[in-house]
Amino acid sequence: MYLKILAHPVFVNLNFHMPILVDLSHPLVMLAGENGSGKSTLLHSIDYALRGEKVDGFIYKLDPGKVEFEKTFLFDAEQHNPRTRLDFFDDDPRMQEFLQMASHGQVMLSMFRENFPNLPDGTVLLLDEPEMALSQSNQRRILKMMMELVDQKKFRVIAATHSPIFIDAAETYVINLDNHINKNVAASDLGIEGQSTIQ
User: Fold this and answer.
1) What is the spatial distance between Cα 115 and Cα 80, in angstroms, rounded to a whole number?
2) Is the overall model pTM greater than 0.85, yes or no?
3) CA separation for the pair 132, 10 (Å, rounded)
4) pLDDT tens, position by position, for the chain (199 residues)?
5) What is d(CA 189, CA 145) in angstroms, rounded to the nearest whole number?
6) What is d(CA 162, CA 159) in angstroms, rounded to the nearest whole number?
């Protein structure tokens, strides 16, 4: 599966002769890069393309190849915290109680253990920073769960992440967005890495 982005409102340096080619043929893809490199933007763009949506300024061509998928599911760990939407669980008092008592990390683990496996086989699961609030040992658990979703449920998982555990894993295919130039690059006046920027 390949996504060719010909024009985009954020990735402004693209044109029909110089597109971004995104290789989504691997079942476990990590989008890596510095803050502002475009990971979340690309993740949402992939979601639009997989659902066939039209977005102003976004011109793309999706070549699914032999990949068949049932559904796409985009989960942003920051925006979709279930603890802020207890009304979704009115019919499940056990879950409501858990969400009120659990830490953010415990809630994230429960999403991987209980909710994501209930999605249809062949789902494309798009995750924005799934490692948020997780310890390193729990990030390893999440990676194992992602691999199980790929193996047992034929998922394709695409995650925007800063986690070295996800990025360095032999099982993942990494797209490093620091190799692309866009208008969200970090300011050049932040100083030398490791030195104080407070004047």
Assistant:
1) 13
2) no
3) 24
4) 888 887 787 776 665 556 778 888 899 999 998 888 788 888 988 999 998 888 888 888 888 888 778 788 888 766 656 656 666 667 777 777 766 776 777 777 877 887 889 889 999 999 999 898 889 999 999 999 999 999 999 999 999 999 999 999 999 999 888 876 443 344 555 566 666 555 5
5) 40
6) 10
Tokens linked to 189: 């006046």
CB 36 within 8 A of CB 19: no
**Are residues 138 and 113 in contact, defined by beta-carbon separation less than 8 angstroms?**
no
What is the Cβ-side half-sphere exposure of residue 39, based on CA atoms within 13 angstroms?
Answer: 24
Cβ-based neighbours of 134, under 8 Å, separated by 6 or more: 105, 108, 109, 142
Distance CA 117, CA 148 (A): 9
Kindly tell me the sign of the dihedral angle through the C-alpha atoms of 103, 105, 111, 114.
negative
SS3 content of the chain, % helix, strand, coil (to 5): 35, 20, 45
